Amino acid sequence: MSKDVFKGIADPVRRQIIALLARSPLNINQVHEYFPDISRQAISKHLGVLESCEILKIYKAGRERYGYLHKPAFVALHTWLQPFIQLEEHSLHNDYEVFLKNTDYAPGMPFSHPVMLQAMLSKDANFDGSFYIAVKTTGIFCKPSCSARPKPENVLFYDTKEEAIKNGFRACKICKP
Ligand SMILES: [Zn+2]
Fold first, then answer.
1. What are the residue boundaries of the structural domains of the chain, listed by start?
2. Domain 113-171 belongs to what architecture?
């Protein structure tokens, strides 16, 4: 895949230009008409970036140069995204903000370590009550949605409060697990 295809779509003006070109090939003056607040030079630069990352190709008609969208760039973007879409499609609990693969979690099974870490980092309250996060450096345990931000390498996970307490951790005063 073109190595700079993500650079091409990284800028909001370039994404707008791509949306325009999806309707019709345009030359630079036609593109510029849609952006009265942006200089022609800046538009030219954006078009140059899109061309260099092969999101657009140039069609020459007489002295005019028209930019048109180059399909392989979009196929490359789609190919890159597809595994994440599949992950979402295959996740069982779409209420959660994190990806849950079948292999990571099935109803009745404990959550896997990566899933709990993702849940902690996203502070998803849907996980509250499912497990508890104990922080080795502070001796405190929390709900997944707690506003505290422990480092991933300092945390342990417990299925129940009782387990966390038995292992010497105290309940957090902020989230009151
Ligand atoms: Zn807490």
1. 4-72, 113-171
2. 3-Layer(aba) Sandwich (3.40)
Q: How far is the CA of 121 from the centre of ligand 1 (A)?
A: 13
Distance in Å, CA 70 to ligand 1 centroid: 50
Q: Are 173 and 148 in contact (CB under 8 A)?
A: no
Which residue reads 């409060």 in tokens? 161
Taking only the tens place, the pLDDT of each residue in 55-80 is 999 999 999 999 999 999 999 999 99
Q: How many Å separate Cα 144 from the centre of its chain?
A: 20
Q: How many Å lie between the centroid of ligand 1 and the Cα of residue 148?
A: 6
CATH architecture of 4-72: Orthogonal Bundle (1.10)
- CA of 99 relative to ligand 1 center, distance in Å: 23
Angle at 115 between CA 111 and CA 120, to 5 degrees: 110
